[in-house]
Amino acid sequence: MSKNNDELFKNVISHAKEYGFVFQSSEIYDGLSAVYDYGQNGAELKNNIKAYWWKSMVQMHENIVGIDAAIFMHPTTWKASGHVDGFSDPMIDNKDSKKRYRADQLLEDKIARYEKDGKTDKAAKLQTAMDEALKGENLTALRDLIVEHEIACPVSGTKNWTDVRQFNLMFSTQMGAVADDADLVYLRPETAQGIFVNYLNVQKTGRMKIPFGIAQIGKAFRNEVIARQFIMRMREFEQMEMQFFVRPGTEMEWYAYWKEARLKWHKALGTDSKKYRFHDHTKLAHYANAAVDIEFEFPFGFKEVEGIHSRTDFDLSQHQKFSGKKLQYFDNDLNEDGKPVGNYIPYVIETSIGLDRMFLLTMINAYEEEDLSEGDKTDSRVVLKLHPCLAPVKAAIFPLTKKDGLPEKAKEIMDSLKLDHNVIYEEKDAIGKRYRRQDAIGTPFCITVDHQTLEDNTVTIRHRDTMQQERVAVDKLDQMIASLVSWRNLL
Q1: How would you label 201-238 residue by residue, b for 16+ Cβ within 10 Å and e otherwise?
Q2: Where in the chain is the domain with CATH 3.30.40.230?
Q3: Which end of the chain is flanked by fewer CB atoms within 10 Å, N or C?
Q4: Is 240 annotated in some ligand binding site?
Q5: Along the 491 residues of the chain, how does pLDDT read in single tens digits?
Q6: Does 241 carry a binding-site annotation?
Q7: 372-489 maps to which CATH number?
Q8: Residue 350, annotated as binding a ligand
Q9: Where are the CATH 3.40.50.800 domain residues in the chain?
Q10: Do the annotations mark residue 77 as ligand-binding?
């Protein structure tokens, strides 16, 4: 990571706290590692990202519906899905620092350093060797690569490593009033299984015809040993997932469709397309026949923000086997012989995006430090150039002074706008300072009420990105804001 990128990331983290976007969980008790709370502006931004995803998935597709499944599920769910026996990461401990790391991430960081230093051959060789070790689940080979490439512990600086071992990531707890009779249940490590176990309920009650999708936004929990890179890797996080059920044999067409559709969704926010790339999986999960990640170039390198997976019929077949309930679909469409296609277990294309990672991506992408110096006068500002649809606050209303009826007029304007838009009122400090505060949280419009407003019912509206000001009639404000923050601009 270059010094500039390192500095940018630290500044974004600091900005997120200072302006009410993200706080360390339980901070007054010295915090809880890898757990974060979203503040007043963070909650609004997060909700707007969710709304963008939900509208683009559910509202814009007649054949996709949304559900909200419970976090607790019958424990057999996780046996059927393979999480009880196979949901683990290869971990390695440093004997001096007593810190535990994911072996593959230590190697990925080394590959990134090789690439940054122009050692592309070394990077490619290490990538191939690591992929082979992961595919063959060869834990000894992973440790050998860490030793061979002289990877040191980031904390102790030593290379005194243990063997690599598998570590299960699920949180478990008991359900029941009496401890002895309690059943072992898990906090879900993904939201997808809630969709699969409800597949039949949704298909029948919604009279859904294949191809169709089920979308869900919800919390998931993983006992991540490595907590780093702020909200990039957390123990409690949120996912936005959609499972798309298709006829076997058509899955690769739909895989290609969703791969392109999801990248288009990201780019619609105005992000530089060079910051995104596809990364095909070399080691496929046991249930997949194709998988790709949409990666974004964070200050610490390209990292996954969304996965598109062709999951075959693995999940529904497993749940049919473990539950004893038929999860087949009867396809009435005619085949080449003019007969109904008949019964089959649908194949599934999954799109899965980490909401917290998308939040971080959005903050990093929007954060700008601008030098506004002119001649001998030095000036600067920090601005979040968020897409107006995502901005936590759409407009801020300022009375120029706290007297002469200006606050009353400003509050009257606020009351007329707040039914349709999230707006705030602010009267403290000089007008310039108020502008800077709103720039820092990404507010697209600042509306100033002055003495002229009382005469002709016009206000000064200032635009965040250009800082240009114009005089506008009060009765035009709603339409002006609505046109900029309309979901039509994205969808």
Answers
A1: ebbeeeebebbbbbbbbbebbbebbeeebbbbbbbbbb
A2: 88-168
A3: C
A4: yes
A5: 444 788 999 999 999 999 999 999 999 999 888 899 999 999 999 999 999 999 999 999 999 999 999 999 998 999 898 888 767 788 899 999 988 888 998 998 899 889 889 999 999 999 999 988 888 889 999 999 999 999 999 889 999 999 998 887 888 888 876 555 557 889 999 999 999 999 999 999 999 999 999 999 999 998 876 666 889 888 999 999 999 999 999 999 999 999 999 999 999 999 888 999 999 988 777 788 899 999 999 998 899 999 999 999 999 999 999 999 999 999 888 777 778 788 899 999 999 999 999 999 999 999 999 888 888 888 889 999 999 999 999 999 999 988 989 999 999 999 999 999 999 999 999 999 999 999 999 999 999 999 999 999 999 999 999 999 999 999 999 999 999 999 999 98
A6: yes
A7: 3.40.50.800
A8: yes
A9: 372-489
A10: no
Q: Is 356 annotated as a binding residue?
A: yes
For the chain, where do the domains classified as CATH 3.30.930.10 start and end? 3-73+185-363
Q: Please state the CATH superfamily assignment of the domain spanning residues 3-73+185-363 in this structure.
A: Bira Bifunctional Protein; Domain 2 (3.30.930.10)
238 assigned to a ligand binding site: yes
Q: Are strands 445-449 and 395-399 parallel, antiparallel or unpaired?
A: parallel
336 is in an annotated binding site: no
Tell me which architecture the domain covering 88-168 has in CATH. 2-Layer Sandwich (3.30)
Three-class SS state of 69? coil
- The answer on whether 351 is annotated among ligand-binding residues is yes
The answer on whether 222 is annotated among ligand-binding residues is yes
450 labelled as ligand-binding?
A: no
- The string of DSSP codes covering 158-201 is ---B---EEEE--EEEEESSSGGGPEEEEE-S-SHHHHHTTHHH
Whether 223 has a binding-site annotation, put simply, is yes
Nearest to 76 by CA among 196, 180, 161: 196
pTM across the whole model: 0.86
